[in-house]
Fold this protein.
Amino acid sequence: MNNSTESLNANRPDIITTEVETISFYRKMDTKATVLEMIEGKYVIVEEYYSNGLEVLAELKKNLLKTYTDKSFKGQREYRSAFREASHRLLIKVVDNKLPLKKAPSIGWLEILYPEVKDFYISYPDVQGMNSSWQWHKKGIEIKTLDLSIYPYYGTYFPTRFDHLKLFDKWLKKYDGSKEKAIEIGVGSGILSFQLVQNGFDNITASDTNKNAIIGVREEAKRLGFEDKISLNYGDLFENCEEKADVIVFNPPWLKAKHKLEEGIDKAMYYEDELFPRFFEQAKQHLKPEGKIVLIFSNFSEVVDKETPHPIIEELRNSNRFRKDLHLRRDVRASSKRTKRTDNRVNEKVELWVLAHKKEK
Ligand SMILES: C[S@@+](CC[C@H](N)C(=O)[O-])C[C@H]1O[C@@H](n2cnc3c(N)ncnc32)[C@H](O)[C@@H]1O
């Protein structure tokens, strides 16, 4: 993979730059008829008001739910896939990197992610995704306990609950080993690397398989004045990293994938079969003799997927590489005080595991 992060091009939604045959949709038009055309494969373009698109999507949902009545996992997946396909035929015309519709949000990504083109068509759901990401990026996420705000880049994982950061902070405050070198795998929006810097690590190498994470953390590190302390690698695990570290940190995806993983943010949530064995094998080579591996995990995976064994427990049980140095757990609080936890995340706990080399006898 490319190691030069300056030349990375961000992952971004596909756009159409040629003229396409479309049906215009204005308020008070026949939404049902428009949706039928969309399902048959025609492109529809949202005109006049931004909210007209919402009306079409609501009708599309209603229509497809009449056909996709199977409530099983498979049935629901088929419904989502049909919705995804048809809804992406609902387009907005972008002019001068803006949405020329009444009451449309202003979305900076339309310019930042498409520097080479001003006018194009983009799907309405992609605009919705960009809008939500832009709001987070503009507003930032304030992490009070760390006295830090982060401004996540488009298509990058970012935390909305902070219990794992508090656990990591607690561990860092007590850590009294060498702080010469740290490696972070899966840097995301950079928060764990920033915590490492805040706690005295001046030489961090951080990797991610998501280009947008690398581009975003490069910008964030500059903003925070950390650019000399964090080297970024766009790549898999320890690829392009020759060094050995005192501390290796990884907040991995927590759920085992049952589907083929896509490029980008998919790999923040789901892991493929061999991710953990590969990580542990390579971490063994990159950890100094007295070094520590810090892994953040959640019992959430056990709640939603009882069949998949806990990958860290598996490693400790089945291989001779590492011993457990510490295991901390903490209840996960709801993201907002008003959020009632009636779902199966009620008993969710976040875990921090610290592993060290198993000493030879
Ligand atoms: C759960 S997110 C954690 C992000 C961040 N460290 C945090 O704690 O907020 C996991 C991250 O690991 C990255 N990732 C997944 N597989 C990877 C791999 N094989 N090599 C490097 N990064 C990977 C994902 O792209 C994602 O950014």
